[in-house]
From TrEMBL:
Pfam families: NMT1_2
Superkingdom field: Bacteria
InterPro entries the record matches: NrtA/CpmA_ABC-bd_dom, TAT_signal
Family per similarity comment: Belongs to the CmpA/NrtA family.
This protein's UniProt keywords: Cell inner membrane, Cell membrane, Membrane, Transport
Protein name: CmpA/NrtA family ABC transporter substrate-binding protein
Amino acid sequence: MSHKQFKGHLTRRTALGTLAGLAATIALSGCGSSDEGASGVAPADINGPPEKPNLKLGFIKLTDMAPLAIALEKGYFVEEGLNVTLEPQANWKVLLDGVIGGQLDGAHMLAGQPLAATIGYGTQANLIAPLSLDLNGNAITLSNRVWDMIKDDLPRQPDGNPVHPISASHLRSVVDSFEAQGRPFNMGMVFPVSTHNYELRYWLAAGGLNPGFYTDGDVSGLIDAEVNLSVTPPPQMPATLEAGTIEGYCVGEPWNQQAVAMGIGVPVITDDEIWNDNPEKVLGFREDFATNYPATMAAILRAVIKAQQWLDADSGANRQEAVEILSRPNYVGADADVIAASMTGQFTFEPGDTRPAEGFNIFFDKYAGYPFYSDAVWYLTQMRRWGQIAEDKTDAWYFETAEKVYRPDLYLAAANALVEAGTIEQADLPETDGFRDPQNGFIDGVTYNGRQPNSYLASFDIGLKQGQRVTASGVS
């Protein structure tokens, strides 16, 4: 078997080294430090039968939980000696508490949740993310009322449909109109440390609208806000929009397509147009789960990686079957047609405007499962940008925090076993030190370099600058 060298760029320079023979060297000296949760696992630990074969994993009713459903329905968990129950959760807070409290062994989790918990934002717990579940998968939807207020000003394609991506700058006149009437302009997202919150904030700020800042310990984020963002669980988004409580939202599928099907809203931008190929969800666990059950951890990851591969195999040939599975009430429970509207290589913005979207949900291709440190750093920069991290941090702090939480050592221990078995190819694993190359593809044209978090933060017109703090009276 061929092997890879992974060289550390972090302050505590590390090397995963040669990963032949099912990660014999992933007893590593640290993809995090050996004393901070990345002590690694010995080959004997991960080759044996699962120490805890009976597992309960949580999820939220979104199409990006698909790898878990497929791992169960296609028998991949059973192949790895696991008896898994998948349990839907009421909201992201309940899911998080379930993992922390041990009622859930792990969960389909927002990428920001294990990071926020580890740094003590909202709650404190040592969580890890050994696998990224997908790339892309969200959209921003506006109410029909707001869409009617902006649609005539949008540039049009020859077919009469709007040119994409649509900038949030088109909302300026709407927000000003609401303000003149003494009314807040309200939008929804799913959780304070969700991808959706940061994507919605990114889109608004790129269009010149301030989505507000968080004070230390605050979870409302309304300081200096021109657009007020509030939390609504994903399945409740369409009903909340229909009730007029919010004028738009950012959520994962199928709840944007549900608004189209109900005729109550219009998706205006998908998240791959905000940040192309952004990481969306992770598989999250308590840190001590991986320490106590190394063979179980490896078995879970192998099963999920196989499910991710199945979802993207043969240019999406299995997606229609996946849609049928996800439509079942014990999983997402939305109509199959609604799920298919975004998961089978297309995305419907409004009747008559369905566009190709082959990369809207990516589960395996483009190294979607690998938990890149630079992805973790991006989420941390957004927490600092909007005040959830109250004070400046050094670049080294961002790197060290990413190392604690994102665990490519565990991912590679499982993935290389699948390479050994011939299940996946060596080329399916990235040649990387854990950082992506500088990324373009953001709607504001800013390049993201995960090795320079503070320089990245300084590049934004809207967002906290070096030395700034947020108080109840504003930014100082």
